[in-house]
Amino acid sequence: MAQAPAAEMETKWWSGGKSPFNVEYGKLMMWYFLMSDAFTFGAFLISYGTIRFSQNFWPDPNKVFNAFPLAGHANLPLAFVSLMTFILIVSSVTMVLAVHAGHHNDKKSVIKWMIWTIIGGIAFLACQAWEWTHLITGDHAVMVNGVVEHIGTTVTRNPWGPEVAGAMHDGHHLTTTGPVAFGGYFFGITGFHGFHVLSGVVINIIMLIMTINGVFEKRGHYLMIEKAGLYWHFVDLVWVFVFLCFYLI
Amino acid sequence: MSIEHTTTVQESASLASTHDHHDGHHEHHHEESFISKYVFSQDHKMIAKQFLITGMIWAVIGGLFSVLFRLQLGYPEMSFPILEDLFGKWAAGGRISNEFYYALVTMHGTILVFFVLTAGLSGTFANFLIPLQIGARDMASPMLNMLSYWFFFLASIIMFASMFIQTGPASGGWTIYPPLSALGQASEGSKLGMDYWLVSMAMFIVSSLLGGLNYISTILNMRTKGMTMTRLPLTIWALFFTAVLGVLSFPVLLSGAILLLFDRNLGTSFYLSEIVVKGEILPNEGGSAILFQHLFWFLGHPEVYIILLPALGMVSEILSVNSRKPIFGYLAMVGSLFAIAILAFLVWAHHMFVTGLNPFLGAFFVLLTLLIAVPSAIKVFNWLTTLWRGNLRFTPGMLFAIGFVSLFISGGLTGIFLGNSTLDIHLHDTYFVVAHFHIVMGVASMFGMFAGVYHWYPKMYGRYMNNTLAYIHFWVSLIGAYLIFWPMHYQGLAGMPRRYTDFSNWESFKQFGEMNRFISTVAMIVFVVQLLFIFNFFYSIWKGRKVTTQNPWGANTLEWTTPVRPGHGNWPGEIPEVHRWAYDYGKDGRDFIPQTEKISDSESKH
Ligand code: HEM
Ligand SMILES: [Cu+2]
């Protein structure tokens, strides 16, 4: 078995002396890293799921996420997060274009598309910052122990509990405080994702500078851009799951 | 055999040969500075030694802690003024305080499990053996490899610093279950020390991730020509699965640790719900302490195999070399490693049978847990058949390898008791569990590590360790380990719980006073003998008998084709090509046939 002479060997790819997957080690490492990171996010999301479904009540995302910058009190459920998601997906597309340009050693296009990707990333983060601020500072009236209080959404309290039958306040139904876990998981997981986006933006900026300085041109390949691209798409993919879990379900 | 390089590789510049970049400058020995050679070294062999020596320092600290708390358990009524001199308020009146006891046990577990048997063991041997045995000049990324060590170093510093905090280090057990670990007001050890613990472990996880990614891509990508996967020595297979386990399970602990940090510092309620501490009602609600246990044990169980697998691999190799026989059932060995790696992810809840886990769910975990006995037994039988009628050479490495097999059998059998959820209701959190995991994981993996050190020492330092000291080390450790942990099974069966500082005022456990004293005495003797090993190790670096031949054990694997003291790059000339598996011992009347030797026409097949 293991002693068959090399000449008789069919599986050339695995016979040593080369990469069996035809990829350079760095890319392989990136893939494994992403698998590992997927487990981190997976653990977060599964924790979120178990806690959420152990509660009697969970806030309705259409009510929590209905604001839009400059739109005042207009009720626009999920409009803003859709925009955020769209931005991130577009930035993935521009990343694909950057990688593609890299394959053709087209430095100018790489620079162009990397800049767009970075802009997309920063725009996403800016949106997230606005959304967080809005949630934290946006006070809502809630009934706490028979008294009306105005509170925002934080990791310890939030106003998204069930409605108090018959009680109105400023034309809205008065609610009680919502499940504490809502804020913790929302800020915890979107924050952890945002941190990934931030790292991605930093990585992309470094890649951009290296491209501008002609580092990859000298190397003759734009492999690093590809690896940064893998990471960026992954972050994007994770967002799809986060989006699904927090906004759609 | 075909020599031509495959040039279909797309990024040919960096790929045509994965080894090119080193080939240019291996001949001339340019003087390296002290810093780049010993401190920020990127040579996998030096990094391995850094892991090993850091691990040894930790082992002494962790071992010393166990001596201290065994002192308490063995002599609960006595007072040792020297303890007060050394530890002040922690040992007021010369007696180890409850807080101190818990801090010691927690740190002992954390240090031994993570810093010694994970970083010290995988870190050392994955780094040392992977490039040497697969025929590579270094790791895929020497840079990340170096960072892996330095993150471990950082984690070590933080953990070490935590022991000097006024309120002491973490002391909720190595499993740091909330709510105890989440609430500073609940115990001294849950104050700042716990934050240090979590941050240290986060650094540790980064280190293990960097290392693991490197090991995996090196093994897959950098094998020398002819080194098919089925020609890999079993050490490499074991280290490969270890790395995969680490890469996929540590991130889950990271999630768990991050949520715990939030609960501790941001007022979230991930693990907390409806708690009263010292009369104070906490506002937290809706969290689940059991959730933490799931996250923890999803890592925790694979972790015990992360500790064990490298030992399994090294023992297979050492047994075969020193029996002068091929390893029995090579593919079965690989297959059982694979099975263990898969099952390791599916059994975590056997640590949670008594948490209120749904018994119906528990039944599945019982089944999957007991299934692990199958690949484990396959391995044991294969080792025994490898030894059977071999020309055994009782080198120190071989003795420790045989000792490992004995311990693995003894500890594995008690696992079968524990794996039954009904029996576990009685046995959980008793000394039976302590005995089980110390024998099967603690001592056994330590033995694997010792076997590896004794066996590969000639390759590491170009000298041998002293045999007489090694034999003393072996026999005292083996007999000592059984004398320490065997009696604990009886204590556990009698219901004696773990994590108590003093049993003397329990009517039911008074009978064990004598036994506890005996265990403690043996533990101290065994500890001293480990110092003998440390002495032997360092003494031999400078004074040991010199290795004069390239291949002192007559082994087949590639590391023995390098010079006695290989430089950075490992082989002065071309990397050798591999033509056969690693286990052609006693074939066709020849004692051994190195992997680099071509298969001749007249050779028999088997
Ligand atoms: C046939 C194989 C095995 C079975 C069925 C088994 C089963 C179990 C069970 C059910 C427990 C939980 C006991 C309790 O807490 O009540 C346990 C604990 C433990 N086992 Fe095993 N085990 C096996 C092999 C191993 C191996 C090979 C290792 C390590 C290399 C290991 C390490 C541990 C550790 C560290 C603990 C205790 C952790 C703690 O609570 O602090 N076991 N084992
Ligand atoms: Cu387990």
Report the sheet-strand fraction of chain A: 5-15%
Structural class of chain A: mainly alpha
| Shape designation of chain B | globular
Supply the number of structural domains of chain A: 1
- Quick one: biggest sheet of chain A? 2 strands, antiparallel
CATH fold name of chain B, please?
A: Cytochrome C Oxidase, Chain A
What's the architecture of chain B, going by CATH? Answer: Up-down Bundle
Distance between the termini of chain A: 53 Å
Query: Approximately how much helix is present in the residues of chain B?
Result: 55-70%
Backbone structural class of chain B:
mainly alpha
CATH first level of chain A: Mainly Alpha
CATH superfamily of chain B: Cytochrome c oxidase-like, subunit I domain
Number of strands of chain B: 4
Structural summary, described in words:
The complex is a heterodimer of chains A (249) and B (606). Chain A has 249 residues and is mainly alpha-helical. Chain A is built from seven helices and four strands, in the order ααααββββααα. Chain A has a two-stranded antiparallel ribbon with strand order 1-2. A two-stranded antiparallel ribbon of chain A has the order 3-4. In chain A, β3 (163-169) and β4 form a beta hairpin. In chain A, α1 (25-53) packs antiparallel against α5, α1 runs parallel beside α7 (223-248) and α5 packs antiparallel against α7. The termini of chain A are far apart. The model of chain A is unreliable at 1-9 (pLDDT under 50). Chain B has one domain (37-592): Cytochrome C Oxidase, Chain A. By secondary structure, chain B is mainly α. Chain B has helices at 12-15, 20-23, 34-39, 44-74, 81-87, 98-134, 142-162, 192-221, 234-265, 289-323, 330-343, 359-371, 373-387, 396-418, 421-427, 431-461, 467-493, 513-543, and strands at 276-277, 280-281, 585-587, 590-592. In chain B, the strands form two sheets. Chain B has a two-stranded antiparallel sheet with strand order 1-2. Chain B has a two-stranded antiparallel sheet with strand order 3-4. Chain B contains 18 helices and four strands. In chain B, a hairpin with a 2-residue loop joins β1 (276-277) and β2. At the A-B interface, α1 and α5 of A face α1, α8, α9 and α10 of B. Copper (II) ion is lined by residues 301, 304, 347, 350-351 of chain B.
